[in-house]
Amino acid sequence: MILESIVFYSLAVASVGSALLMVTRRNPVIAALYLILNFFCLAGLYLTLQAQFIAVIHILVYAGAIMVLFLFVIMLLNLGDERKLSDAISPRKIIAGGLSLALLLELLSIFVTGTEGLPEYNADQALQVGTVEYIGKQLFTKFLFPFEVTSILLLAAIIGAILLAKKKPD
Amino acid sequence: MEITISDLWQSAPMVSLTLTGLVALLVESMKGGRTTAVYGLSLAGCALAFVFSLWSLGSEVIVFNGMILQGGYASYFSMVFTSSAFFTIVLSRPYMQRLHREQGVLYILILFATVGMMLMASAMDLIILFLGIELMSVCLYVLTGFVRTKVTSNESAVKYFLLGAFATGFLLYGIALVYGTAGTTNLKLISQSFAQLSGNSLFLMGAGLLVIAFSFKVAAVPFHMWAPDVYEGAPTPVTAFMSTGAKAAAFAAFVTVFIRTFAITGTPISEVVAFIAAASMILGNVTAIAQSNLKRMLAYSSIAHAGYMLSGIAAGSAEGETGILFYLAAYTLMNMGAFGIISWVEQQDDTKLTFDDYAGFSAQRPVVAAMLSVFMFSLAGIPPFAGFFGKYYVFLAAVKADLVWLAVIGVLTSVISVYYYLRLVMVMYFRDGNATIEERVPGFAFAVIGVIAALVILLGLYPSLVVDISKTFFKL
Amino acid sequence: MYELLHDLLGDSLLVYVIGAALPLLFVLPFAVVAVLLEMKVSAHMQDRVAYMYTGWHGVLQPVADILKLLQKEDTVPAAADKFLFRLAPFLVFMGGYAGFAALPFSSAYIGSNIDLGVFYILAVSSLAVIGLMMSGWASNNKWSLFGAMRSVAQIISYEIPSALSILVAVMIVGSLNLQEVSKFQEGGIQNWIVFGGPMPLLQKLLLLPFTITAFFILFLAGIAEVNRTPFDLPEAESELVQGYNTEYSGMKFAIFYLAEFANMFLVSGIVVSLYLGGWTSPFGDVMSGPIWSFFWFVAKGMFFVFLQVWIRWTLPRLRVDQLMYTSWKVLTPFLFVCIFAVGLILVL
User: Chain A closest CA to C152's CA: distance in Å?
Assistant: First the structure.
């Protein structure tokens, strides 16, 4: 469908563009806002793949909660301009940049060539897999153990956060 | 597809330790919660989990819908982790009391980190592997920054956290690519289709990213940058825990994925791992010579040891696996012992950590000095201590897998390492000075270190103890 | 609804545009009515009469207000981040308005019949939070920034009780789609979820205390999420001038107001759909059908809007710490108990 490819390409361009802008902006608040835009584009891409639940979770958790708290912290710390933090170009940076570029090219070439013989999904399967019912059922049957482990992980993270953030170190 | 009671019963080590952690948390949060109670509870939990692991060593099963392996390999590592946690808890108490920073949460976090390690060793699914690594890492980040009043502790925690989060990114990306090509996260299914997958460049990329993530966790060159700073800044018992339990867990996961699941012998992955191993051995040992701070010296030595063990993984054979298993047991013991003694001598203000501070130590504390010497000899790989046989098995596996050059580098760098390990022994015995431990050495911790020293010698004399375990019990 | 449009216009972009614009036909007149309601109710509660000159008893006053706002100068502070400053009110309105897509106005009309329903509404309303944050920061004014921070902290905190209380109803119905939830409650007032839903009598009685608790908490959290008294700290005029919209004037200011009223109805709509039968008639089959169901939905919704106005002019404002305390230490634990109990009752 033409409409679908229009949606896909505009979202794809917007997400790559916002990601690039996020990295290059000097002002942390603006950068964070671009990251939020990026999350929304990604959520849109998930929707084109029929993954409704993931899309909504992505917006609710990342764009809605985490990024807002992130902005909150940036504003509280009043991190004005990042320019003061950046230093001049050093040989180390050039090497790092070169290696990153090599990795990027390698990944790109692999994504172009290496996708043959992969398992394929048709539209019906994708439609079925993306629903809340399906994810819920999988989560509470096949993946019940990882689900429970996640609760311990979150508990440990909460304990840690409270311990480090407590006002009075006693 | 439900969790049954037998599933829970078969994973008794993990379940019991988790429950202990939760109960300890409740005790800690109660009004007037006694730290001593949490301390005792945590020790009891570790001991109980150890006993459960020992008991289930012979019965290997895959439980929870193919998610985790219990018994055998997992039990062996559970024993290593629980002993490491036990020793850490014992050593932490006097250390934290001296700093007036003792809190029950410390022990609880150690317990949860241990649960994460157990998950890493028993994972039969990449999701579990990821969750285990995260559970362990999150606890370790907090433990590293536990002494909030100390700048170095905070700094190292932030450093560890930022780099660790980055490594997690690599891990997830790798898992995503492996999942994308294999169509499953189950390690058993991946191992069945490995032959056809290994030709796929996307899959290899995923495996490569996994190598990066694991190399970070074991602190191998070139992903080692965090280790010296974090080891130096963290409270010394936590450093001990990180360099033993956490390293063993990372290797357990490494072995699970790259030996037990992927048959990497002769693939590009093996070459990459061999290169990382060689680089770690050379850089770790050479840099360790230049250190004057003992914690930093041990950090670089731990990088070098990661290199030795990685040559077992590069071999990709059952011998390599056995070698790593033995090596990890020995390394856990000797490093724990060394850090234990250092954490006594260390002063509150981060002094008494250099070689010179140990001048004349043998005259002051002959028994402690003797034990420290045992650990140093063992770390250097001098027979008949445990460290020697670890190296022997690992290098043997490398030679058998046609990686003679790697074994040669290993032996040569081991020779270099003798210099800095024995330098400490030399300072203790042959240089005059007035090294003093002002505080009385706590009896229980002292006894525990003694036991560790005895075990190092015992393993050196009877290395077949561990080797037999892996030959007899590991079938899956 | 889309089926009808599809049949009329075929598969074209126009269908989607019209479909998306339909709720606007409701929201705009509603805002006008709500402004009047707010003024009249507040006046009569304080023994005044409010507008009397424009039209009969001043009913045309909101229209005059809108015309006035349209002519006002649209000021942008010199030190503001101009682009974000202009963008913010639209994001705030979009966050609320997008939620209307999943709200079942009648048995025959729901903007988008997606499975995720109420979950989707929760997600898109986070857009409004970002808009608020943006407006506060871009204004470059300390009161705006404080207001925005307060509102964000408040909305995020109250998202937890509201999500949990939504979960209570969703657990009973077994669907997130609000259309399904409304259908589930058909057959009269006794089948509404707040009264235990269409369950066997014993189960109903057991569920009753928990559903009523969850219903009240949902409404309370809803008021907090639209930043209205007693939770209107973000624009506490005695402390912060006007909060995050201090620097706004003219139409942009009006859009903030429009967003607030749209959100008021959205919150009421969620409460009504989940706990009070949605568009179903309270008398069973009497007075049901697509047109009647639209009436019932709007009537119930308007009642809750009225309730919000009523509360606003009755109660004083909370303190920040009281606000957070209520959310985290009172409402959330209560809801955990509710969820646990409801789950237990449903399983047994």
Answer: 8
